[in-house]
Amino acid sequence: MESARDFAPFSGLDEPMLRRALAAGEERSVRTDKALWYQGDTSSYCCITIAGAVRTIMYRADESTLDLGLFGPGDWLGTAELILSGPCACDAVAAEPCRLLAYAKTGFDRLLGLPGMERWFLGELARRQYALYSRVELSRPQDRLARHLASLAAPGSSRVTCTQEELAESIGATRETVNRNLGRMQEEGLIRVGRGLVEILDRNGLEGKTP
């Protein structure tokens, strides 16, 4: 798969080393909506996306979901799980037709054995972990709910007409989670909850802005 040369860590390899790196993996084509793996599955391979995009979703203990975003050309998926022989940390589903270069455990070990590869992946995993921690903290159900309510209010209006079921579906949470967080925001003076509506009392506070 010569097109893999366009992406790290293959871009800096000479021709013989590139052939060794590519030979350790297996080219795969994945149709839209086909799952690469599901959260909790035993990790059996990692991959780099060569073309297309893969959507990743994590399910949390409170039954809410965290959209980790799309992984497009040049992005690696599943490396940490494969290295640690642990379960898959999220669902990974093709958002469109994809071409992947997949590495089973033995093939990935051969890839890591090439000069400079282990160091590159160590840095990549550190960057990925830092970005994930930041995203998870900013994506608590209360944060997602607050941002969503602010986006629903029409310009010049402070009233949002919606049900808790609709809010729960929109932010990927349960109705109980939405109800609990609406109560917290009401106690904080950010909103007032009525039947089928939410009145925004403090938009800056709801959006996390300092007046």
Description:
The protein is of the alpha+beta class. It folds into 2 domains: 137 residues, Jelly Rolls; 66 residues, Winged helix-like DNA-binding domain superfamily/Winged helix DNA-binding domain (Arc Repressor Mutant, subunit A, Orthogonal Bundle). It contains 8 helices and 11 strands. The strands form 3 sheets. Strands 1-8-3-6 form a 4-stranded antiparallel β-sheet. A hairpin with a 2-residue loop joins strand 10 and strand 11. Helix 5 crosses helix 6 and helix 5 packs across helix 7. The longest helix has 22 residues. The model has no long low-confidence stretch (mean pLDDT 89).
Task: Give the structure's gist in a few sentences.
The protein is of the alpha+beta class.
Which descriptors would you attach to this protein?
alpha+beta; 4-stranded antiparallel β-sheet; elongated; Arc Repressor Mutant, subunit A; 211 residues; Jelly Rolls
